[in-house]
Amino acid sequence: MKRFFVTLFSTLLLVGLGQSPLTAQNAVVVASPSPSDHNREGLWFNIGVGYGTSGCGPCTERDGGLSGGLSAGTTLSDNVLIGGGLTGWRKSSGAVTVAAGLLTPLVRVYPSGTEGFFLTGGVGVGWIDFTLSNQLNRSPTRSRAWQWAHGSANQVGYAGLAGLGYDFRVGNNASLTPFLNGFYINGDENLASINVVQFGVGATVH
Q1: What pLDDT does 153 receive?
Q2: Quick one: average pLDDT of 129-136?
Protein backbone atom coordinates (compact mmCIF):
# COMPACT_ATOMS: atom_id res chain seq x y z
CA MET A 1 0.00 0.00 0.00
CA LYS A 2 2.79 2.42 0.89
CA ARG A 3 4.48 1.73 -2.44
CA PHE A 4 1.17 2.39 -4.24
CA PHE A 5 0.80 5.87 -2.70
CA VAL A 6 4.43 6.73 -3.49
CA THR A 7 3.92 5.74 -7.13
CA LEU A 8 0.64 7.68 -7.36
CA PHE A 9 2.20 10.79 -5.83
CA SER A 10 5.16 10.65 -8.25
CA THR A 11 2.84 10.25 -11.23
CA LEU A 12 0.66 13.22 -10.21
CA LEU A 13 3.81 15.36 -9.70
CA LEU A 14 5.13 14.57 -13.17
CA VAL A 15 1.75 15.31 -14.75
CA GLY A 16 1.60 18.62 -12.90
CA LEU A 17 4.99 19.54 -14.36
CA GLY A 18 3.71 18.75 -17.85
CA GLN A 19 5.83 15.61 -18.34
CA SER A 20 4.76 12.15 -19.26
CA PRO A 21 5.79 9.52 -16.68
CA LEU A 22 7.01 7.31 -19.53
CA THR A 23 9.29 9.93 -21.08
CA ALA A 24 10.42 12.00 -18.11
CA GLN A 25 13.64 10.04 -17.73
CA ASN A 26 14.42 10.34 -21.44
CA ALA A 27 13.62 14.04 -21.87
CA VAL A 28 16.18 15.98 -23.95
CA VAL A 29 16.44 19.75 -23.93
CA VAL A 30 17.32 21.14 -27.37
CA ALA A 31 18.67 24.69 -27.44
CA SER A 32 17.59 26.78 -30.39
CA PRO A 33 20.36 28.59 -32.31
CA SER A 34 20.94 32.23 -31.42
CA PRO A 35 22.83 35.07 -33.11
CA SER A 36 25.66 34.59 -30.59
CA ASP A 37 26.41 31.08 -31.92
CA HIS A 38 29.50 31.06 -34.16
CA ASN A 39 28.76 28.05 -36.33
CA ARG A 40 30.39 28.36 -39.74
CA GLU A 41 29.60 26.22 -42.78
CA GLY A 42 29.41 26.32 -46.55
CA LEU A 43 30.37 29.34 -48.64
CA TRP A 44 31.27 32.69 -47.09
CA PHE A 45 31.56 36.27 -48.38
CA ASN A 46 32.95 39.48 -46.90
CA ILE A 47 33.00 43.12 -47.99
CA GLY A 48 34.69 45.84 -45.94
CA VAL A 49 35.55 49.53 -46.14
CA GLY A 50 37.75 51.71 -44.00
CA TYR A 51 40.82 53.89 -43.84
CA GLY A 52 44.44 53.11 -44.54
CA THR A 53 47.83 54.75 -44.18
CA SER A 54 50.69 54.01 -46.55
CA GLY A 55 54.45 54.27 -46.29
CA CYS A 56 57.38 53.57 -48.59
CA GLY A 57 61.16 53.40 -48.48
CA PRO A 58 61.98 57.03 -49.35
CA CYS A 59 58.78 58.46 -47.80
CA THR A 60 59.24 60.79 -44.83
CA GLU A 61 55.65 60.45 -43.62
CA ARG A 62 52.63 58.23 -44.08
CA ASP A 63 49.66 59.19 -46.28
CA GLY A 64 46.07 58.33 -45.46
CA GLY A 65 43.33 57.36 -47.86
CA LEU A 66 40.29 55.21 -48.55
CA SER A 67 40.80 51.47 -48.25
CA GLY A 68 38.68 48.35 -48.51
CA GLY A 69 38.38 44.84 -49.78
CA LEU A 70 36.32 41.90 -51.01
CA SER A 71 36.85 38.25 -50.17
CA ALA A 72 34.99 34.96 -50.54
CA GLY A 73 35.59 31.27 -50.18
CA THR A 74 34.49 28.06 -48.54
CA THR A 75 34.52 26.64 -45.02
CA LEU A 76 36.76 23.71 -44.10
CA SER A 77 35.67 23.66 -40.45
CA ASP A 78 34.49 25.97 -37.67
CA ASN A 79 38.16 26.91 -37.24
CA VAL A 80 39.41 27.28 -40.82
CA LEU A 81 38.07 29.18 -43.84
CA ILE A 82 39.88 29.42 -47.18
CA GLY A 83 39.28 31.60 -50.23
CA GLY A 84 40.61 34.60 -52.13
CA GLY A 85 40.54 38.34 -51.65
CA LEU A 86 41.00 41.68 -53.42
CA THR A 87 42.29 44.53 -51.23
CA GLY A 88 42.98 48.12 -52.24
CA TRP A 89 44.06 51.58 -51.10
CA ARG A 90 43.84 54.96 -52.85
CA LYS A 91 45.07 58.48 -52.12
CA SER A 92 44.48 61.64 -54.15
CA SER A 93 46.15 64.93 -53.30
CA GLY A 94 45.95 67.76 -55.79
CA ALA A 95 47.11 66.47 -59.16
CA VAL A 96 48.68 63.32 -57.74
CA THR A 97 46.89 59.99 -57.30
CA VAL A 98 48.55 56.92 -55.82
CA ALA A 99 46.74 53.59 -55.73
CA ALA A 100 47.78 50.15 -54.57
CA GLY A 101 46.04 46.81 -54.55
CA LEU A 102 46.63 43.11 -54.22
CA LEU A 103 44.97 39.83 -55.14
CA THR A 104 45.75 36.91 -52.86
CA PRO A 105 44.54 33.50 -51.77
CA LEU A 106 43.47 33.82 -48.13
CA VAL A 107 43.22 31.68 -45.04
CA ARG A 108 41.08 32.66 -42.02
CA VAL A 109 41.90 30.84 -38.80
CA TYR A 110 39.58 31.00 -35.77
CA PRO A 111 41.57 29.81 -32.70
CA SER A 112 38.24 28.96 -31.07
CA GLY A 113 35.52 27.40 -33.17
CA THR A 114 32.88 28.94 -30.91
CA GLU A 115 34.20 32.53 -30.88
CA GLY A 116 34.41 35.27 -33.50
CA PHE A 117 38.09 36.24 -33.27
CA PHE A 118 40.20 35.29 -36.31
CA LEU A 119 43.60 35.72 -37.94
CA THR A 120 43.96 36.01 -41.71
CA GLY A 121 46.73 36.11 -44.26
CA GLY A 122 47.87 35.34 -47.77
CA VAL A 123 50.58 35.87 -50.39
CA GLY A 124 49.83 36.86 -53.98
CA VAL A 125 50.32 39.57 -56.58
CA GLY A 126 50.05 43.34 -56.10
CA TRP A 127 50.24 46.52 -58.14
CA ILE A 128 51.14 50.16 -57.55
CA ASP A 129 49.91 53.00 -59.76
CA PHE A 130 51.16 56.60 -59.75
CA THR A 131 49.39 59.25 -61.84
CA LEU A 132 49.56 63.00 -62.39
CA SER A 133 46.05 63.97 -63.46
CA ASN A 134 47.29 66.65 -65.90
CA GLN A 135 49.30 64.03 -67.81
CA LEU A 136 47.16 61.71 -69.92
CA ASN A 137 49.87 60.11 -72.05
CA ARG A 138 49.72 56.53 -70.79
CA SER A 139 49.95 54.70 -74.09
CA PRO A 140 51.01 51.07 -73.63
CA THR A 141 53.61 51.65 -76.38
CA ARG A 142 55.49 54.13 -74.17
CA SER A 143 58.41 52.89 -72.12
CA ARG A 144 58.23 52.72 -68.32
CA ALA A 145 60.91 55.40 -68.05
CA TRP A 146 58.93 57.71 -70.36
CA GLN A 147 55.75 57.22 -68.34
CA TRP A 148 57.57 58.03 -65.10
CA ALA A 149 59.12 61.18 -66.59
CA HIS A 150 55.80 62.34 -68.01
CA GLY A 151 53.57 61.81 -65.03
CA SER A 152 52.58 58.17 -64.69
CA ALA A 153 54.07 54.84 -63.73
CA ASN A 154 52.90 51.45 -62.52
CA GLN A 155 54.44 48.37 -61.04
CA VAL A 156 53.34 44.76 -60.55
CA GLY A 157 55.11 42.60 -57.99
CA TYR A 158 54.67 40.07 -55.25
CA ALA A 159 52.53 41.05 -52.26
CA GLY A 160 51.47 39.76 -48.87
CA LEU A 161 48.72 40.47 -46.35
CA ALA A 162 48.27 39.68 -42.66
CA GLY A 163 45.51 40.79 -40.31
CA LEU A 164 42.96 40.06 -37.64
CA GLY A 165 39.31 40.72 -36.95
CA TYR A 166 36.21 39.69 -35.03
CA ASP A 167 32.79 38.50 -36.22
CA PHE A 168 29.98 40.03 -34.16
CA ARG A 169 26.94 37.93 -35.03
CA VAL A 170 23.84 39.93 -35.95
CA GLY A 171 21.90 36.98 -37.36
CA ASN A 172 22.14 33.24 -37.91
CA ASN A 173 24.33 33.71 -41.00
CA ALA A 174 25.54 37.33 -40.83
CA SER A 175 28.17 39.23 -38.87
CA LEU A 176 29.58 42.73 -38.53
CA THR A 177 33.36 42.34 -38.80
CA PRO A 178 35.77 45.06 -37.65
CA PHE A 179 39.26 44.36 -39.00
CA LEU A 180 42.88 45.48 -38.89
CA ASN A 181 45.16 44.46 -41.79
CA GLY A 182 48.61 45.23 -43.06
CA PHE A 183 49.84 44.54 -46.58
CA TYR A 184 53.06 44.98 -48.54
CA ILE A 185 53.68 45.29 -52.29
CA ASN A 186 57.15 44.97 -53.74
CA GLY A 187 58.42 47.79 -55.96
CA ASP A 188 61.34 48.27 -58.37
CA GLU A 189 63.73 50.97 -59.57
CA ASN A 190 60.85 53.16 -60.81
CA LEU A 191 58.39 52.81 -57.95
CA ALA A 192 59.32 52.16 -54.33
CA SER A 193 57.75 49.31 -52.39
CA ILE A 194 54.66 50.29 -50.46
CA ASN A 195 53.15 49.13 -47.19
CA VAL A 196 49.62 49.88 -46.01
CA VAL A 197 47.95 49.54 -42.62
CA GLN A 198 44.17 49.49 -42.95
CA PHE A 199 41.30 49.30 -40.49
CA GLY A 200 37.56 49.38 -40.94
CA VAL A 201 34.31 47.44 -40.65
CA GLY A 202 32.95 44.77 -42.95
CA ALA A 203 29.91 42.57 -43.39
CA THR A 204 30.38 38.80 -43.46
CA VAL A 205 27.88 36.19 -44.63
CA HIS A 206 28.67 32.61 -43.54
Answers
A1: 72
A2: 67
CB-CB contact of 74 with 81 (8 Å): yes
* β-bridge pairing 194-205 and 43-56: antiparallel
Residue 89: closest CA among 78, 97, 81, 80 = 97
Helix, strand and coil percent figures for the chain, each rounded to 5: 10, 55, 35
Higher pLDDT, 131 or 140: 131
**C-alpha torsion sign, points 98, 197, 191, 138:** negative
Average pLDDT of the residues in 189-201: 86
Q: How far is CA 167 from CA 118, 127, 153, 162, 205, in A?
A: 8, 29, 38, 17, 10
Q: Give CA–CA dist 35/158, Å, rounded.
A: 39
